[in-house]
Amino acid sequence: METAQHRRVLVVEDDDTIAQAIQHRLRAEGFEVRCTGDGESALAAYQQDEPDLVILDRMLPGVDGLEVCRRIQATRPVPVLMVTALGEETDLLVGLGVGADDYMAKPFSMRELVARVNALLRRVDRAARLAVDDQVVRIGAVAIDPGERRVFVRDAEVQLTKTEFDLLRRLADRPGQVFERERLLTDIWGFSQPAATRTVDSHIRALRRKLGPGVVRTVHGVGYALVRP
């Protein structure tokens, strides 16, 4: 249910019985579901709803499932679970070749369908988190590589301790925003004691020595912030 929350699924299936069964089960799992029965209406619904995942029949009237998949992935790629009555390996390879992420042959159980849908969405979520976590953050002359935990100033690497890096990364989450000393103490060290905020001050001084002037500013009586470039 956690994966399903606020997720929209487009079901493209020309067999009304199958489409309704899929819709009923996914709605029971917490998904928002829309059904269409042909390729043209599927493409229109896709543009209108911007679903998080598409369940796509291979054989459709008019524009077939392979062409629908190809057009979807060329505009705004999303996970596509292709279903078909055809069980040939060739059809599997063709479907994957035009951008399908997974493939199920009819008949299939609704329980397996839900498991496949949730697995695809978790995979997308993990990829998105990794992309954000590993993205290099640039603040003026400073570049922070969270994935490799490396910091560069004007392309020269600077050696930071683990705590210094974590502190810099926290400030870099919101450049320009002032972080109170107590908040930084809680976020980085895991406890909050007003008397211990001098620990934060000493690490800020160390960062300034290593990063140079004009990177971290002090807001007296409040805390610290990274200077916006």
The run of helices and strands is EHEHEHEHEHEEEEHEHHEE
CATH topology title of the largest domain: Rossmann fold
**Spatial strand arrangement across the major sheet:** 2-1-3-4-5
In which range does the helix fraction lie?
Answer: 40-55%
Largest sheet: 5 strands, parallel
Shape-level CATH architecture of the largest domain: 3-Layer(aba) Sandwich
CATH hierarchy, class of the largest domain: Alpha Beta
Give me the CATH superfamily of the largest domain: Response regulator
Low-confidence stretches: none
- Total count of helical runs of at least 4 residues: 8
Q: Report the portion of residues in β strands.
A: 15-25%
Q: Give the N-to-C terminal Cα separation.
A: 42 Å
Mean model confidence by pLDDT: 86
Shape: elongated
